[in-house]
Amino acid sequence: MHSTTGTDITKAIDLLKKGELVGIPTETVYGLAANIEIHEAVAKIFEVKNRPSFDPLIVHLLEREQLDPICHSIPKEFYLLYKAFCPGPITFILPKKEKLSDLITAGHNTVGIRFPNHPLCRELLRESNLALAAPSANPFGYVSPTSAAHVDQQLGKKIPYILDGGECKVGLESTIIDLSKKEISILRLGGLSMEEIEKVLGFKLKSSKISSSNPQAPGMLSSHYSPSKKVFFDQDIEENIEVDLNSIGAIRFKNYHPKIEKTNQWILSEKGDLNEAARALFKVLRETDTTDLEIIYAEKFPDTGLGRAINDRLKRAAY
Ligand code: TXA
Ligand code: MG
After folding, report:
1. In angstroms, how far apart are the furthest CA atoms of the chain?
2. Rounded to two decimals, what is the model's pTM?
3. Angle at the Cα of 258 (from 256 to 260), degrees rounded to 5?
4. What is the pLDDT of residue 212?
5. CA distance 140 to 154
6. Which ligand is nearest to the CA of 95?
7. How far is the CA of 246 from the centre of ligand 2 (A)?
């Protein structure tokens, strides 16, 4: 099998209803979608991604009316955030109802719910009337895809169809907020900044530090987002520069490092816009992987807005 890529919603719906997997565009990153009603389809996600079964999946919905059969005890903060940001790059962890498959939630009593903001994806959800379980469409542990071509390169041989919605506008995975506990916390920094969320909630949030030994959100393992190059994050270049200048590249925010070959450098946003930088990050990490460079120096981005999520991903890429 090799997947085809296109914009045929009807074909995508047919496949999903038959229990096949489809690559889908969202505003954050591309997802690998399955119909939540079909157990075998959901199981296929773990197989195709080589993902451990202890890592739960996010369920994608068109609108909040679909929550009723899936979640219970929805707190008022959900409604505030839904009104402010949905559809958009935020995932809510909520108490799940019995009926929802344990395979999706990896046995947790909570489920991740997201309302993606991409016109083609929303059309798919609307026309199909399905709820879709979808992780990012990359092999487990690798950088998430931000274009249909990225999905095709790595999973093309394993899935029948990729719905092409162009390049992802946000470029980082959704921000995950845990609304299932007394104290609300951020489980994953992502495409919606903490500042924006805090402004709507009216209080400061805790960003829970999740270690690789804590299975609470396994996708947050320290070594996630690993490209195959040696990435150094926020470290002094000087020592290695002596060694082998031509094998060194750099990922930079807005200007070139004076000591490294310009052709070996990637500037994420010349005008210093963190949203633009976020959009480019994963594509650039993939590009560095196709070069002969041995070491990539990633500079630390400003720790505000999407800069925090960028730093988080670079830190994990560097692990
Ligand atoms: O932007 C996104 O969120 C993308 C697009 C495709 O929607 N999806 C995505 O899915 O990034 P994935 O599976 O690559 O990452 C989801 C993360 C994982 O780290 C998983 O452990 C965590 O969400 N997660 C899912 N359900 C959870 C739950 N019930 N409790 C805690 N963490 C959960
Ligand atoms: Mg992922």
Report:
1. 61
2. 0.95
3. 85
4. 40
5. 11
6. 1
7. 32
Ranges of the chain whose pLDDT falls below 50: 211-215
How many angstroms separate the first and last alpha carbons of the chain? 35
Give, using CA atoms, the residue closest to atom 15 of ligand 1.
135
> Can you give the residue ranges of every domain in the chain?
4-207, 230-317
Contacts of 131 (CB under 8 A, 6+ apart): 35, 36, 37, 59, 60, 61, 66, 70
- Segments of the chain assigned E as strands: 4-6, 22-24, 31-35, 58-60, 90-95, 110-114, 132-133, 161-163, 175-178, 185-188, 206-207, 230-233, 248-252, 265-267, 295-298
Cα(38)–Cα(22) distance, integer angstroms:
14
Mutating to test ligand 1, I would choose from 50, 58, 61 the residue with most ligand atoms within 8 A of its C-beta, which is 58
Q: Say how far apart CA 73 and CA 61 lie, in whole Å.
A: 18
Q: Find where tokens 């890529």 sit.
A: 5
Neighbours of 60 (CB within 10 A): 27
User: Please, what CATH class does the domain formed by 4-207 belong to?
Assistant: alpha beta
d(CA 36, CA 39): 7
Domains 4-207 and 230-317 share a fold: no
Which tokens in the block code for residue 296?
């990539």
CATH class of residue range 230-317 = alpha beta
Q: Which residues on adjacent β-strands are paired with residue 230?
A: 295
Distance 238 CA to ligand 1 centre (A): 38
Cβ 135 under 6 angstroms from ligand 1: yes
- DSSP notation for 201-212: HTS--EE----T
Q: Among the bound ligands, name the one nearest to the CA of residue 118.
A: 1
> Cβ contacts of residue 6 below 8 Å, gap of 6+?
161, 162, 163, 164
- Cα 143 from Cα 150, distance rounded (Å): 10
Query: Identity (one letter) of the amino acid at 96?
Result: K
Rounded Cα–Cα distance for residues 192 and 175 (Å): 6
Q: Looking at the CA of 56, name the nearest ligand.
A: 1
Task: Give pLDDT, residue 224.
Answer: 67
135/57 Cα distance (integer angstroms): 6
